[in-house]
Amino acid sequence: MPSSEYHPPPVFSTVRIVSLLSSLLVALASGTNYVFSAYGPQLGARLHLSHTQLNVIGLSGNIGVYGTAPLWGKLVDAKGPRILLVIGFVFLLSGYLGIRHLYDVGLPEGVADLSTVAFGALVLCGFMTGIGGNGGLASSMNVTAKSWPDRARATTTGLVLSGFGLSAFLFSTLAHIFYPGDTSEFLLLLAIGTSFPMVWGFFFVRHIPLPHSELTHSALEHGHARSESATRILARENNSTTHLLKDNDDVTHEDEDEADGAMSASVEFYPRSATHHHQAEASDYVVPRSPGAVALSPTRSSGNRNRSRGSFSVSRSRSRVRGVGIGIGADGLPNMRGMALAVNRNFWLLFTITSLLSGTGIMYINNVGSISQALYAEHSVEYDEVESAQLQALQVSTISIMNCVGRIGIGIIADITKNYFKLPRSFCISLVASLFVISQVAVYNVEHVNNLWKASALLGVAYGSLFGLFPTITIEWFGLPHFSENWGFVSLSPMIGGNIFSIAFGRNLDAHAPSDSAAAPSSSSTSSIVSTATAAITSTVISSSTLTTRGGLPSDHQCLQGRICYADSLKMTIFACCFALLLALYAGWIDRHSVKGHGRALLPESESETEVLWEEEEE
C-alpha cells in the first residue's frame, strides 16, 4: 500500500524557486508608484496643475499602497495570494487607463484650470494604482516569507522587494526606448505592463511548505536565544506533580487552557505529515535547549501516544497585558496580532521610525522631477524640454536601480549580522537611518542638476534598505503566522510621514513660484488635513532675487531659483532623519538586551516569570 505521507519539497527545489521568481515578476509590476516623477511634471504641464496638486495625486497612489496594507495583509494571511492578484489586475489596469484618458483629453477650449471633478478623478485613479500595486506586493511578500526558512528569509524577501524597487527603472527605460517623449503611450505601457503579470502570478505564486527539518531548526534557534521566555517540557508516564525552579501556587486552569490553545495554534500553522504516525513521532516535539529545561522522564514508547492534559508540561508566563496574552506561541516563537500588537511598545517604535524615514523617501521620490527642473531652470538661459525630461528620467532610473540594490543588499547584510555575528537584525536599522541622513544632506548641498544623480543614488539605497529590512524585523519581533497583517499595520506609517512631508514640499515649492500662479487646490481634503502641520513651511519668505523670464518653461508654476525653491523642506527632513537615527539606536539596544535577557525586552511592559511544571492527572 503506497504511503499517503506528505513530504514538502526541499528548500532549493524547482517548485519553490519558480514561485520565488514569479513573486519577483509580480513585484516588478507592483512598484510603479515610484515612476510618478517620470510623467508627473508632464501631466501637470498639460492640465495646468500646481506642485501641491501634483503632490496630492502622487500621494493618492501611496495612500492606496499603504492604506490598504492591513486589510490586504489580513486577507492574504487567511485566503492566500490569488484573490489579491485578481484585485491587482483590475485596479492597475483601470487606474492607469483612467489617468491616460484624462491626459489625452486635456483641458477644454478656453479653460485655464482643471475642474474639481476632473482633479478628483485623477486622485481616484492614482489611488486605484496604489491599491492594485499593494495587492501584488502583499501576495508576493507573503508567499516568499512563508516559503523560505529563517536563515534565508531576509535575503529572499529582499530579492522580491528589489523587484518592487526596480519597477520604476524598468518601465521608464522601456518607455524611453519605445515611446520617447510620448507620455500617453507611456501610461498605456504602465496599464498593460503592470496588470498582466498578475495573471501569471495567479497560477505560479503560491505557498510552498517548509521541510520539517527547517521548522525544527528555526524553533531550536529561537528557543536558544529566548529560552527562559518560552521553555516547555513534554513529560509523560509519572504519577506526581512536581514544581521546578520555584514554589508557586498560582497555577490556574485558565493558564492550562491558554497553554493548550497556544500549542493547538502552533500545530495548525506548521505543515505536518498526512499520517497520524508522523504526527506522534518524538522528533515532532521541539524542546529548546536551555539551562531551565529539565527532562524528568524518558520519551514515551511508540505504543503509547495518547496525551492528556495531565501529562502535558509547558512553561507558563504570568505576564498579562489587560487580558491579552504575551504573544509567544507554544513553539517559543513570537505570535502577536491585534490588541497585543497595539499595546506593544516595540510596534510603536517601529511605526515611528518607518513614518519618519519613509515619509522622507516618498517626498523626494514624488518630487525629484520638480527638483531636477528647478535646478535645470536656474542654470539655463533657454529651457530645453527634451534635455530636462532626460535629466528627470535619469533621477527616476537612478533611484529605482539603487532602490533595488538597497533591498537586496540589506537582506544579505541582515542575514550576515544574525547568522555570523550573532547580533539582532535590528542593528541594521541604524545603518538605514544613517543612509537617510547622509542622503538628505547630499540633496541639500547639490547646486547643479548634473550632480543630482549622486543624491538620488543615496536616497534610493536608503529607501530600498528600509523596505528590504523592516518586513523581516516585523517577523522577528511579532511572529510569522500573522506577518502580512502585522506588516500592514506598520505600513500605515508612511501615510503620515509621506503626507506631511510631501504636501509641505509642494506648498514650499509653490511659495517660491511667481505669485500669480502659486495656487493650491482648495478642494483637496488631504491638503487641509496637513495645513496646520505645514504652516511654518508655507510661510517661507520668498527670496528677494529677481525672477527672470525663461523661454520654453513647461509650466507657469515653475520655480527658477534652484535649491532655494525647496531648501526649507530638506531642513525638515534632515531633522526628522536624525531623530529616527536616535530611535534606531535605541531599537538595536533594546533588542540586544532582549537576546541577552532571553526575550524580556520584546514582550509587553510587565515582567514575565517562567514556571516549569510536570503534571500527571491522577488515576
From TrEMBL:
CC terms in the record's Gene Ontology section = fungal-type vacuole membrane
Which residues, by range, are in coiled-coil regions?
none
Q: Which PANTHER family match?
A: NODULIN-LIKE DOMAIN-CONTAINING PROTEIN, UNCHARACTERIZED NODULIN-LIKE PROTEIN
Region (Disordered) location: 234-258, 291-316
A GO term for molecular function: transmembrane transporter activity
Compositionally biased residues, Low complexity: 300-316
What's the main place this protein lives? Answer: membrane
Q: Where in the cell?
A: Membrane
> What is this protein called in UniProt?
MFS general substrate transporter
Q: Which residues cross the membrane?
A: 84-103, 115-137, 158-180, 186-205, 346-365, 393-414, 426-446, 452-475, 487-505, 572-590
For this protein, the record's InterPro entries field holds: MFS, MFS_trans_sf
Q: What top-level branch of life does the organism fall under?
A: Eukaryota
Q: What does the UniProt keyword field contain?
A: Membrane, Transmembrane, Transmembrane helix
Protein biosynthesis is among the record's keywords: no
Q: Which Pfam families match?
A: MFS_1 (PF07690)
Membrane topology according to the record: Multi-pass membrane protein
